[in-house]
Amino acid sequence: MAEEPGRVLKPGRVLKPINSSSDTDVLQSVKPGVVLTQAKENTSDASPPVRKEWSLRDFDIGRPLGKGKFGNVYLAREKTTKYVVAIKVLFKSQLQKAGVEHQLRREIEIQSHLSHPHILRLFQYFQDKTRVYLVLEYAPKGELYKELMKNTRFDERRTATYMYQMTSALKYCHSKKVIHRDIKPENLLLGLTGDLKIADFGWSVHAPSSRRTTLCGTLDYLPPEMIEGKLHDEKVDIWSLGVLCYEFLVGKPPFEAESNADTYRRITKVDLQFPRHVSEPAKNLVSQLLKHDPNQRLSLDKVLEHPWIKENRLPSTS
Ligand code: ADE
After folding, report:
1. What is the pTM of this model?
2. Which of 50, 124, 161, 308 is within CB 3.0–4.6 Å of 281 for a Cys-Cys bond?
3. pLDDT confidence of 69, banded at 50, 70, 90?
4. Residue 11 — left, alpha, or beta (φ > 0 → left; ψ -120 to 50 → alpha)?
5. How far, in Å, from the CA of 201 to the mean position of ligand 1?
6. Catalytic-labelled residue, pool 182, 200, 220, 237
7. pLDDT tens per residue across span 97-137
8. Domains along the chain?
């Protein structure tokens, strides 16, 4: 499929469960998701709007956009409307083997109900016998961590701009008691104008929460209370925002170490050091986010008002 600019897929307003016709229904108890309305909505009082069940046959599939642990993401275009989207394909067998079906259910339930310029939209989901498909907003500038690798680190203007966008998206999530819990460059995408989009709500929950799923992968972004398995709330995202800001400015996360045990120690001690090139006001912001006591962390409102953010961020393009 040629990558021509497509219209942005608009979600329908109506909630409807998908038809689960599969043997292994990993989505059994997912609450109704947002359903796309393909045909023009019929607004007359007499007949209800046209709704439909979606399947892979409704899409032309294009190039792979990214690889995930449980499947890949592909560029796709809805055949009738020519809307361009990204489709995340997840293998049920792999989800079951890892015991993360509940996380997928939560991801769908939470992400499909969020609508914010800096949060990737989840428009729809459907499944067949072996796979689950998530129909997502397409983020044309791709994965942010690749940009970070290409540039090694970002300058203070670019970092402050991303921080402002992240903070406004997290404020929106927290207002709905949703905590993301997995903020890191790998889970961020870039829209057409280079604006940031939070993606991957696989670890998200409603606050307060305790962690029951085993942690895997890097500890770098986890706050002390989550590593220690304590009850935690939305302030975990404020810690991760501090780690993210540091990684954008420096090119590596603040508590990086040779082993997980060493990273753990550095996190619990808040062993924070900055290279000389980081400005005092930027250090001030990061230090106020990376407080061991969750209640001492700067509020999201105060992040938006922080002088370094106000002076450095570029005006919004979205
Ligand atoms: N890579 C992974 N997901 C993507 C998306 N939704 N848009 C663009 N690139 C992606």
Report:
1. 0.84
2. 308
3. confident
4. beta
5. 14
6. 182
7. 999 998 899 889 999 999 999 999 999 999 999 999 999 99
8. 1-140 (3.30.200.20), 144-312 (1.10.510.10)
